[in-house]
Write a structure and sequence with these properties.
Largest sheet: 9 strands, antiparallel
Helix content: 25-40%
CATH topology of the largest domain: conserved putative lor/sdh protein from methanococcus maripaludis s2 fold
Number of domains: 4
Distance between the termini: 21 Å
Order of helices and strands: HEEEEEEHHEEEEEHEEEEEEEEEEEH
Structural class: alpha+beta
CATH class of the largest domain: Mainly Beta
Radius of gyration: 44 Å
Strand content: 35-45%
CATH architecture of the largest domain: Beta Barrel
């Protein structure tokens, strides 16, 4: 009678248990959701630095002559629209206004007198109690009084306007950037008083090489990013119709939409112009695993076998990453790397158990 080795019986039972555990693990493993690695049409872009500019930039000048008596704002002050920036001495201007007002009052009295006289002569003329020469003289006197009234009225308006010019006001809300006069200086018409910019409307100015201008004109699409990478909403694009002498580059202006409290004129921003389209091999970003210095994905073949594959990726766009190396078109990758890692361990355990069983049978 053949004797059974107890040691072999125990080993066989242990191997059988491992195989059954692996089979149960495979049965309990969830079905993995996968996505193909495929080529996708991606916009081809051209990246350049741009400078933020204020749409409204103004140097306020004096419009009348006078000594600067008060300056209410200095550099880097916030000014509201219509606020008085500086005041010129107005003594002479007020005297002219008073003189023009007196002349106006006299002209009004003369006009009323001429009208009454004209009315009286006209009544007598209708009754044939006044001659033609008297009627003509009354008409001439009325026209003369009317002309004098209009002249004095214009003089009064001009004097009042010159008085208003002694108060130099801000044309819009903004920030003062430069001051040109001091208190006590004589300001003349056209002399700069203060410069400022408005932060309500901003734009970006970019110098684009002439080789890229045809594509920029064709697509008219641009993205602007702040220094921290945050996107900035843009409006229309204006391409200048001439190139700068020496650099042969074209200036392109990009309008910015809305308010941007963290942007100021003179700051640099990143601009990305769309200049065409290209095909890129891309993989879903959710499928990519980052382990220390290793970047990879779990690839699932047609038989359901899982392999961890190291890859190199490029820039992200939307929900996908560009594949630089490690994958080919059509391969399937697991969208849930955690579940894929668990399934990979289960498959490895099952293979180890199967190999152990084969080795035991051969023994």
């Amino acid at each position: 009678m053949r004797t059974v080795n107890p040691l072999l019986v125990g080993l066989s039972a242990c191997l059988l248990s491992l195989v059954m555990d692996a089979a149960q693990a495979n049965a309990a493993a969830p079905e993995l959701n996968t996505a193909p690695v495929e080529y996708q049409p991606i916009e081809r872009t051209y990246r350049l630095d741009g400078m933020v500019e204020a749409v409204n930039r103004t140097t306020v000048s004096a419009q009348t002559q006078g000594v600067v008596e008060e300056i209410f704002y200095d550099v880097d002050d916030v000014v509201e629209r219509g606020a008085v920036i500086a005041r010129l001495r107005d003594t002479e201007h007020r005297a002219r206004v008073a003189q023009a007002a007196a002349e106006m009052k006299s002209a009004v009295a003369q006009l009323e007198q001429a009208r009454e006289e004209h009315k009286r002569i006209k009544g007598l003329f209708a009754k044939q109690n006044a001659s033609d020469s008297e009627m003509d003289k009354a008409n001439t006197a009325l026209k003369s009084a009317q002309a004098k009234f209009e002249a004095t009225q214009a003089s009064l308006e001009q004097a009042q306007e010159q008085l208003d010019y002694t108060l130099i006001r801000a044309p819009y809300s903004g920030i003062t950037t430069k001051r040109y006069v001091e208190i006590g200086e004589m300001a003349s018409p056209g002399q700069p008083i203060m410069s400022g910019v408005s932060l309500d409307e901003l734009r970006v100015s970019v110098d684009v090489p002439q080789s890229a201008i045809p594509a920029v004109r064709e697509h008219s699409q641009v993205q602007v990013f702040a220094t921290d990478g945050a996107p900035i909403e843009t409006g229309g694009i204006t391409v200048f119709p001439f190139a700068e002498t020496g650099s042969n580059s074209f200036q392109v202006r990009v309008a910015l939409v809305g308010q941007h409290p963290n942007l100021f004129p003179g700051m640099f921003v990143k601009t990305v112009f769309v200049v065409g389209e290209q095909l890129e091999l891309r993989v879903p970003a959710a499928a990519v695993v980052y382990r220390s210095e290793v970047t990879g994905v779990y690839v699932v073949d047609n038989a359901g076998q899982i392999r961890f594959r190291m890859i190199r990726v490029g820039h992200r766009r939307g929900d996908s990453l560009r594949v630089l190396s490690g994958l080919t078109e059509g391969e399937q990758v697991a969208l849930d790397p955690i579940a894929a890692g668990v399934a990979l361990k289960q498959q490895a355990a099952a293979r180890a158990a199967a190999q152990a069983e084969e080795g035991a049978q051969d023994g």
